Amino acid sequence: MFISTAFAQTAGGEASGAGILVQMAPLVLIFVVFYFLLIRPQQKKMKEHKAKIDAVKKGDQVVTGGGLIGKVVRVDDIYADVELAPNMKVKAVKSTLTDVIDPTTAKPAND
């Protein structure tokens, strides 16, 4: 009925090493799932958006972060001048542009 001290320490030491791996496996699995389902697609989406905004050129129709739609009249590294109405231009930071509208698929608002 009595277990020797040396035997109890050896058996307990081996079991705790395997126990740590068993306890860490679900955490590692959750991290892997989060990476492939959430983190990686978000990084890909951000990279595509940055490439689209960096490619903005004069004549493109854009949507600003505030929801305003206008035509780009001038672009530099940081800013884009956007014409919202005839003779009404605003200077917008390029990083605040949310979308570039494709002129082939855009329809007038009153149609």
Question: Can you tell me about this structure?
Answer:
By secondary structure, the chain is of the alpha+beta class. It folds into 2 domains: 1-55; 57-101, SH3 type barrels (Roll). Helices cover 45% and strands 26% of the residues. The chain is built from 1 helix and 5 strands; from the N terminus they run αβββββ. The chain has one helix spanning 5-54, and strands spanning 61-64, 69-75, 79-85, 88-93, 97-101. Strands 4-3-2-1-5 form a 5-stranded antiparallel β-sheet, covered by helices on one side. The chain is rod-shaped and about 95 Å long.
Strand and helix layout:
Blueprint: H1 5-54, E1 61-64, E2 69-75, E3 79-85, E4 88-93, E5 97-101
Antiparallel strand pairs: 1-2, 1-5, 2-3, 3-4
Summarize this structure as a short list of keywords or feature phrases.
single chain; 111 residues; alpha+beta; SH3 type barrels; 2 domains; 5-stranded antiparallel beta sheet; 26% strand; rod-shaped
Unreliable runs: none
Largest sheet: 5 strands, antiparallel
Distance between the termini: 90 Å
The string of secondary-structure elements, in order, is HEEEEE
Question: Cα-atom Rg, whole angstroms?
Answer: 29 Å
| Broad structural category | alpha+beta
**Content of β-strand:** 25-35%
Shape: rod-shaped
How many distinct beta strands? 5
Q: Report the helical percentage.
A: 40-55%
Mean pLDDT: 85
Largest sheet strand order: 4-3-2-1-5
Number of helices: 1
Number of domains: 2
